Amino acid sequence: MKVKTVVLGLVSVVVLSGCQTMQSQRTTQAQSANISRYVSEMERRMNSKLEAMSAENARLQQQVQQLSTELRSINSQVAQLNSNMSALDVRQKKEITQLVNEVNAKLRQVGTQSSSSGSRATVSGRVHTVESGHTLSTIAQAYGSTVKAIKDANNLKSDVIIVGQKLVIPD
Question: What is the dihedral sign for C-alpha 130, 132, 135, 141?
Fold first, then answer.
């Protein structure tokens, strides 16, 4: 009987342990199913986020391409404006040079007319050739004369004189 009791005790332990193992197995299977559902949900969310990021990336790439095109266009316009400004600058410099030459020619003509007028025959004195930086005032001081006397002797209506012009300085 003792053996029976021991065997019965052992069988009960084995049976009860088997029940506990089956219970653990069911719990493990339930946990595994929960983990599997969680992993599937996370995978679905990650795929959704990946799709959204891919769409955003495509939109940003298109925007970068558009901005690059606009930048090339603006750079082209700036280059064209620079070219136009350079051409305008050259043209203006030519026009200014031409105007200066015309004014100088007119001044020489006026100076020649005033130098060759008939009043010189009645005025005696020295002849002075105008150099750069000379004014009627400095010439008058150098010769001990007056601006009015030099203007009268040369029939000058203004104080404008030009380089190379010959002036009679009255005595």
Answer: negative
